[in-house]
Amino acid sequence: MGLTSNTTLSLAVLAAVLLFAGTVWQWPRLAGRGWRAVSGRVGLLFATQLALFAAVGLAANQAFGFYASWSDLFGQEKDQGVVVDHAEDGRPAGPLRVVETTRLAGAGHPRVIGQIQQVAIAGRTTGIDSPAYVYLPPEYFDPQQRTRTFPAVVILTGYPGTAKALVDKLQYPRTARELAKDGRMEPTILVMLRPTVAPPRDTECVDIPGGPKTESFFAKDLPAAVAEHYRVNKKPGSWGVIGNSTGGYCALKLAMHHPGVFAAGAGLSPYYTAPTDPTTGDLFHGDKKLRNEADLRWFLKHRPAPDTSLLVTSSKVGESNYKPTLKFIEEVKATNKTRISSIILESGGHNFNTWRREIPATLQWVSGRLSSR
User: What is the pTM assigned to this prediction?
Assistant: First the structure.
């Protein structure tokens, strides 16, 4: 029986109900002070609580899609995602300040292992300030390559998310270093941060009327700040963007709305329109144009096809976005201009373990679509 099947959930609920009833029925017989009576009471209470927690956990997993299978739950899903390309049918002190520098795991000079810098970014046009982590590849510190410039990729968490999780949980810097060392991607600067730049509000990367101009921060202020401080390639097509969940939606939207900035956008487990709920508040304030353009499928149908490359991921079992993702792929293919690729896993929930399986192929895909020098 699968982790997400209704049968498994029903059996867990039935077990909890039967154990509760059995505890009530047997309690008078276990009311003594002997070790057997005490052990019986402890055993029944423990079993009842365990069954109850299991039922609640299974129900929550079905509702939110954290894990797709038992092997996913216990971290045993190891097969990597494979990209499938779909052919077309027919402030004064400076906008970026380094707060702290750290090494990747392992000993050695930065020109051997690279470096992670914790930075503070000040949006000159939007007034938005955000912390971030910047990964600089080993080649950045090579004296013989001191004039070399590098492509850059913005990497976004989900909501609420933490930027540090991109470093130590999803391991983007380590994966990028290993891929570049093996020649499977170009040495690349990674800029890792949350899409939640006005916490605790979930702005969904929207320029909110009278509120935070989040989309402009990511499309204008962030690339400008990074390019001013680091040796980023200034040629067109040098920037990409990757994100998971909310960050995945933002990544696709940024690439579609700003193809002149982002040559590639990859959404891991993305959705395709901005939700409205208590965490977002009123994002559009009656602006119908803004609301429509935040719907990526509407944008494809009613705006000129953006000259950019998109990657979307999902899984056949475990992700709620599987069918919407298939529809999105077909709609992008119909534009005959925007390129679309996908990673579709057989099984994988909406969680870190699934995204770790997709990240190596995603980094390779993005790297192959950016100007490297």
Answer: 0.81
